[in-house]
Design goal:
By secondary structure, this protein is mainly alpha-helical. The chain has helices at about 1-10, 15-35, 40-50. The chain has 3 helices and no strands. The longest helix has 18 residues, at about 15-35.
Length: about 55
């Protein structure tokens, strides 16, 4: 997930906190609009968090 945050900071000019909030917002949106992808979205972000620790 750090790679995505860094990309948002560099290319969109967001702060790290703004980038993290954007990712959280987008993940929530995808889960709301496409409930069948909810588990996949959770796994993607959980996998990213495990790799960063």
């Amino acid at each position: 997930m750090n790679e995505l945050i860094e990309k948002l900071v560099k290319e969109a000019g967001l702060t790290e906190q703004q980038a993290q909030q954007a990712i959280t917002t987008i993940a929530g949106f995808v889960k709301d609009k496409f409930p069948m992808l909810g588990g996949a979205v959770d796994q993607i972000f959980a996998a990213g968090n495990k790799n960063e620790e």
